[in-house]
Amino acid sequence: MSKVIPRIPLPAGERPHERLPSPGEWSFPLIEQYHRVIRDTAERFGLDTYPNQLEIITAEQMMDAYASVGMPINYRHWSFGKEFISNEQRYHRGEMGLAYEIVINSSPCISYLMEENTMGMQALVIAHAAYGHNSFFKGNYLFRMWTDAGSILDYLVYAKNYIAACEERHGYERVEEVLDSCHALMNYGVDRYRHPEKLSLAQELVRRAEHAEYAQQQVNELWSTVPTKPGSASKESLKKRFPEEPEENLLYFIEKRAPHLQTWEREIVRIVRKIAQYFYPQRQTQVMNEGWATFWHHKILNTMFDDGYLSDGLMIEFLKSHTNVVYQPPVSSRYYNGFNPYALGFAMYTDIKRICEEPTDEDRQWFPDIAGKDWLPVLHDAMHNYKDESFIGQFLSPKLIRDFHLFALLDDENEEEYVVTAIHDDAGYRRVREVLSNQYNLGNREPNIQVWNVDVRGDRSLTLRHTRSNNRPLNDDTDEVLRHVARLWGFGVQIESVAEDGKVVETRKCLAPKMDDDE
Amino acid sequence: MSDHEITRVDSGTLPPPIDRRLAGKGKSIGNRQRFLRRQSEQVREAVKRAIEGRGIRDVGDGGEDVRIPKRDLREPVFGHGPGGSREGVHPGNEEYVTGDRIERPRGGQGSGGSASDSGEGEDDFVFHLTKEEFMNIFFDDLALPNLIKTTLADTPEYKSVRSGFTNDGTPNNLSIVHSMRNSIGRGIAFHKNDRKKLLELLEELDQLESVCHMCPAGYDEAHQKLTEEIGVLETKIGHDPEVESHESIANRIAAIVSKMRVIPYLDPIDLKYRARMRVPMPYSKAVMFCLMDISGSMDELRKDLSKRFFILLYLFLTRHYEKIDIVFIRHHTEAQEVTEEEFFHSRETGGTIVSSALLLMEQIIRERYPSGEWNIYGAQASDGDNWGNDSGTCSDLLEARLLPLCRYFAYIQVVEEEQNLWREYAKLAERNKSFAIRKVKAVSEIYPVFRGLFQKERKA
After folding, report:
1. Inter-chain CB proximity B88 and A484 less than 8 Å
2. Range(s) of the domain holding residue A429
3. Which of A325, A354, A380 is the last residue of a domain?
4. Among A225, A407, A421, B181, which is least packed, fewest CB within 10 Å?
5. Is B125 on the interface with A (CB under 8 A)?
6. ipTM associated with this complex
7. Contacts (Cβ under 8 Å, ≥6 apart) of A279
């Protein structure tokens, strides 16, 4: 671990003579003043961050950043334009407040402060993004394993330039087609378990130069199966599937094996795949990440108030915003739209601290490992070593289940009605916790689809296999996504849905796309 | 990345926040262009509708809402469809106990954790084309050369004229007379009391000094004497502030002078700058005559072509003239001056006598638009049908009476077939440079009609 986490918070420095000024308007010197105190306070709790870079931007720039998936730079694509237009409209119609902050998992870690924010909001955002999220990016095991904060911005610059060059050389339409198809498979462009080696930009460039030809050879090798002498091909080899083991990373498989893709097209597939992989940890740690950041902005600002830095007015404004952020509408509310990750995550970290500091008998029974321990190391551990699924599975306490009035509901197509399977009582705690934990398992949320086989000796068609969980079928987009797969693959594509007993229950096909020129 | 040093950032240094507000504005323009290109069909359709729906004068106002069905914009991904079984956790239980059964909400999809993706209530995606985008698409259809596009889309030229004085400006516009006037005025206002007092003090000092000069023993002695006298007086009548010593008067003078120094001679608030205002270049007036055949053979498509032709001429003219009148003349066997609405949206049957329109145009010019004051432009659209020997009459009429009055007269024929009118006009066009004719079957063919006009403009 990078930084020694103090067992208890380090002592406060000298008490300031007067509170920090808190006018409504922020100013650059004031931001620096607040930032310094926030930073010192965060350090007392052992928050270990990448270097921080605060950037002041306008609302329009915030929408720009929104539109390109929160990145300060990205390649050009129509879907980002669409996103921008619809955000802009909703913003102007007043349907949507802009998020207070965007923070980028990069080193240095860039946090955007919107110019419209008041000083109090800027303080909240700095604590939330620059110390909360930032320390999460640096500490959480998924991020440590999958993303390289130091090189992502360089990589995006490379991606943007590469794709712009492709557009110039091969025309917008062709590049757009490839990107559209890749985007359709983006969620299936990640290695879920295997760990890729991290590449720096320089290595990436060298790799591309060296391996472009080699990669093409590799592809050809698969297809250059010179017909073996009749009879010599054993039945076994005919029966053998290719790939032998199912491949979960569809884009990877396409990049390496699609017969007709040109080198630049392969590189685009790779770029989309790399970016998908970069975002993969974020998709698995929503509750934890937001919860952690929210817990810390709350803790840091409260500590600063106690230490005599913040004025009452600023504190009231902050608490108001904070309360809005962590509001969880109940299921009966018309604003209910699933869980608010800020609310759930904040409640869980706060609860873990409570279990450490003031455990009840119930807590001792459920959490013998942490009840009564020092809260700071426990909390850091609960950030470092989990993802949403395991975090909830491990730490959701009966008390929280009661506080949130959680209940589990089963929706089975064979049943006339919904069935309440568990509620917040002794008999239900474990089930509620298990179901909620499962709900955050990405593998459950997205259909499980893998590359199953390629008809190497026949029509070269690709077979995907969808393994059904709980008998849930694929959605209506499937046929269209298959067309995208076929466009990349260059030959026919089919997808088989396999029930839990291993039988194929549904097959959908997409014929080979027409080739304008067969190279 | 594995091993980090245990570093505690030096608590003195923190990089200051970076101000990005001025940088990277409109970063998503490239994405927007790609989006527009992808939706070009709908966008073009919207522009076409706008052109149909708007008056000739309003087309240049630009901007238009484009409506795109949401499903055309969907980006498909693999996902779970409805069906199977799923279990989810929800907050805010009020009355349920384990085993309760709850009726499914109507419409099948539940309050499940997965988002409803079968939503039928598909709103259209609506967005606004900016004026530039709108005009670009309009011009693209017309196949205008780029140079012309920019000249047309530009707002008219401005010239800058003086308009009084302002409080801020650049040094080269500084008005010294006005600034100094302010400075002096302010000085007078500020120093009024001080000056008075200063004069009094100086006078007193003079008196004192004259006493000294009278006294040959010198100043000190005189002073000594004076203070003694003062002392005597003071003891008699108490302290009299009027009587002061030489030093204290000098001190007070110094104080007043230094106070007067503090007030600057020239303060930023004194500065006045010559103001300039942009006013549109004074233009002369123009009148544009739209002549159109509305006999039965002019169908909607042909009318649309004609309308675009008129719009384009109008846009060209707005570039050069501040005030433009448009006169609409429609004709079949006889001509009529009508409103724009009637012009484009009525259809009548019957024969065609083109010369009737030309005669009416001439009549209107003589009555309302004396050619000395007005720049006259004629634009005629027709399908080329004309009554037997009327075409010769038209040609003569144009050559002898109308063209001398007009800056330019353009004729488009919206069908391929050449009839006698075309033949007559073709002969005329060869002889006369301010007359242009063209056959137009698609909107992209309209522009060349104007080419002659522009070449002339360039020379001018």
Report:
1. no
2. 341-443
3. A325
4. A225
5. yes
6. 0.86
7. A69
